[in-house]
Amino acid sequence: MRKNSGLNIEDWQIKTNSHVKGEIGDRPSAYLSRGSKINNSLIARGCVIEGIVKNSILSPGVMVRKDTVISNSIIFNDTVIGPDSVIEKSIIDKSVNIDEKVHLGYGESKPNEKFPHHLFTGITVIGKGAKIPKNLRIGKNCIINPYVSLVEKGLKEMGSGMTV
Asked: Given this model, what pLDDT does residue 61 score?
């Protein structure tokens, strides 16, 4: 079966010649859809950008779905960000799945409750493999630990400074 996403046809991919230790094979070039906008950002190979990315760094394989806005953030490998989401001043580790209509980094900035001397500048940190459900709002200076799935917790909002 052939997957077709513009130039990203499985049998005929445009690839760069880079060998990164621990990474399996090369990835196709980044794909920027017609409606995407990128400003002052670094977009790695294998990314699919359908939304807006400003002042950010996206590692290989990051997917930014339609009508999503990412600003002042660092997003690591193979993270998927669903449509209609807003990601502000966040660091998101590898293989995170963020569903649709999620807002990271909203509201008033309060220091993190567990690490007030380390996390007080408004940055939200999402750990490797975390799952963020649709319609969730996560404040500033929050920490979501690795492999935590907030899907089962039924949260609609996580205020600034919280850790899960």
From this structure: 96
